[in-house]
Amino acid sequence: RKEVEQDPGPFNVPEGATVAFNCTYSNSASQSFFWYRQDCRKEPKLLMSVYSSGNEDGRFTAQLNRASQYISLLIRDSKLSDSATYLCVVTHNTNAGKSTFGDGTTLTVKP
Amino acid sequence: DTEVTQTPKHLVMGMTNKKSLKCEQHMGHRAMYWYKQKAKKPPELMFVYSYEKLSINESVPSRFSPECPNSSLLNLHLHALQPEDSALYLCASSQGMGREFPIGFGEGSWLTVV
Prior knowledge:
The structure holds two protein chains of two kinds. Chain A is mostly beta strands. Helices cover 0% and strands 57% of the residues of chain A. Chain A starts with a strand and ends with a strand. By secondary structure, chain B is mainly beta. Helix content of chain B is 0%, strand content 56%. In chain B, strands 2, 4, 5, 6, 9, 10 and 11 form a seven-stranded mixed β-sheet that branches. Chain B is globular. At the A-B interface, strand 4, strand 5 and strand 9 of A face strand 9 and strand 10 of B.
């Protein structure tokens, strides 16, 4: 079983739709969680950190469920520019801060 | 705009060549990383430097040789590479190696081995 698992998609949604991605992790010692966005042939960029209390940044909301060991990313009112691959990243204190990447979920927002 | 600068952006090299990838950051970050990314795959960690010392080597073949000349610079020396080493090489940095520090990537160097 992979340490970090994501639904690869692809998710194809119309503009204005709400879409949610989940990411599960297997190491209960995992401590920090992040969502990155990667556009085609570009570098990954930090989208947001994920906290136990959840956090929101405009149309994006991230949640952490430690009991079930998953994190989620909700995108409301999807824009064409949201089309990208979304990478879930998990770090844990037993591995000197080494980050583990999920395989990514591809989102395409269509007009 | 990324605050981690990588050069060159594109590199084509033969299997007998020696070349280097360079990375620079001026944010005072104490941890720097090299990742390799193949198409449709996530970034794969190669090396981590913390306070200019190599702290993680993910069993990378010796044809890849990292170097950290100072706290702002990170190099990846390449020698006798194979065509399967063709990939996007990403440099990244973070404030520290603590679990709470997200990493920020440079734009990457596209490497083609012929």
